[in-house]
Amino acid sequence: MLDVFIVAILVILIKTKDIADANAQIGIYFFACAIMLSIAATMMIEKMATLNDFYLPTPKSPPKQGFS
Prior knowledge:
This protein has 68 residues and is mainly alpha-helical. The chain has helices at 2-17, 26-55.
């Protein structure tokens, strides 16, 4: 998220100094889509991890060895 913050600061600085013009183009939609896909993938992985923990059998204690 630091990269988004730096880009926002640069846009503000450029717009206030009238050095250049900055406007949103198609890349902002690709970036937003990548963020949404990343969030969805993280949620799916977390869900699969919790389901695997639920359905995996609990480990049993090893059999005793020796004469007891």
